Amino acid sequence: MxxxxxxxxxxxxxxxxxxxxxxxxxxxxxxxxxxxFLDNPKYLESLDRTNxxxxxxxxKYADRVPESTIPxxxxxxxxxxxxxxxxxxxxxxxxxxxxxxxxxxCRIGENVSFGKDVVVGERVMIMPGCSIGDDVIIGDDTIxxxxxxxxxxxxxxxxxxxxxxxVIGSDGFGFAHTKTGEHVKLYQLGNxxxxxxxxxxxxxxxxxxxIDSTIIRHGTKxxxxxxxxxNCDIGEHCIIVGQAGISGSTTLERNVVMGGQSxxxxxxxxxxxxxxxxxxxxxxSIPGGKVYAGFPLMEHKRWLRLNxxxxxxxxxxx
Length: 318
Fold this sequence. Notes:
By secondary structure, the protein is of the alpha/beta class. The chain is built from 4 helices and 35 strands. The chain has helices at residues 3-10, 44-48, 77-85, 300-317; strands spanning 23-24, 34-37, 54-57, 70-73, 101-102, 107-108, 113-114, 119-120, 125-126, 131-132, 137-138, 143-144, 149-150, 155-156, 161-162, 167-170, 175-177, 183-185, 191-194, 199-200, 205-207, 213-216, 221-222, 227-228, 233-234, 239-240, 245-246, 251-252, 257-258, 263-264, 269-270, 275-276, 281-282, 291-293, 298-299. Strand 34 and strand 35 (298-299) form a beta hairpin. Helix 1 (3-10) crosses helix 3. It starts with a helix and ends with a helix.
């Protein structure tokens, strides 16, 4: 689609150079035939080196746009991207495609539904009641327990275990807001990639990426009732305990432990070998190799001292 047509649909005034736009990409990964956006100044360094054909952004950041990229100036870039995203949303059910390719030794239970162009590896077991969407890939020796749903385009690695009721690839919670209070859906164009030897507990939800992938890396283990939001990158060999919630675009480096009912704000990084105690709340990026607790979050030893001091203070007053 022509850039001028996209701009018109989004309500952006543009009369400059004409290029063809074939999709939406992040600032880091967009190609010259894709459009991107900047709404959070945390990503200004990515803007400096982007290869996107065009970027929607506020006027105050326009001088950071590379010469090869066309700036589309607007004070509501996220909202305008939401309007454009609807034009690139894939069909939820393919009308045409190949039946599922089931490799040697697969065992498929009753009432399992497959979309088009699905590839299921050797010795995979898919138990009754599962729903496998279009273009899903499932690696060798993976076990999918009853009533799991894997949305279109998602990839599951080898030797994974996915327990009952889990949903992989549902839409991330992405909405832009108009000045008059309406909520405009940002269509979720990415997928979920689960690498090898990952175990996911029952009734978890892992949202597909808004543009790129949500990634669960090799060897990570996830307990029941965990929510992982869109565009998270969960590092190798992490442990995420029940009822934890990880907000969008959060990165966990390797061997992070998230205790029960702990949570994060979005767009932050937790360093390798960090441990977040139960009900800990992470609101900003933190270095690895330490144990944290509480809200506001602090190192665990300090949190213990604080609670001991509060207890003594209450005892004195009583």
